[in-house]
Fold this protein.
Amino acid sequence: MAKLRRWRAYRNIERPFTRVSKFKKKSYIRMTPVRKVVRYDMGEEGKYGYVIDLIPKKTLQIRQEAIESARQTSIRWLEKNIVKGAGFHFKIRKYPYHILRENPLAAGAGADRMSTGMQKSYGKPIGTAIQIQKGDRLFSVEVNKQFVDVARKAFSRASQKLPCSFTIRATEKKS
């Protein structure tokens, strides 16, 4: 499997010319990459007293691999530290819709003479990303009052898997 490029290659929000049409000949993106974020809504629905949100401090793109890694980390921490029966409701608020593309250049012997490449070339789809604005909610979890600190710890662990700094905000739900 090919190695992922560094995050800094995709962190800036750009809106490239993309067109996905129901008519194949008019569609510029020939395929959409496989989604790696498998679940967006986890836990038990119910009445919880507090909502904890993970909010980015910058506007940027986050690849789906980082989102899935952060989701797995936080869910594992919540399931391990919240008492059975008390429960939680975890939700990913954004969907990775932005298709990332890459123009592969030749590598190997003699590649130094042909690797100039086209500037701003269209490229092949290699993955998807979430475009998130400063202040938007990325993840949120609903818990009861005694588990607010557990949810904060879960989000602090998840934020270490993500490429920028985040704010963790806890708010009491109005009944």
In short: The CA atoms of residues 53 and 73 lie 15 Å apart. The longest helix spans residues 64-81. Helices lie at 64-81, 148-159. Residues 43-101+123-175 form a domain with the Aldehyde Oxidoreductase; domain 3 fold (CATH 3.90.1170.10).
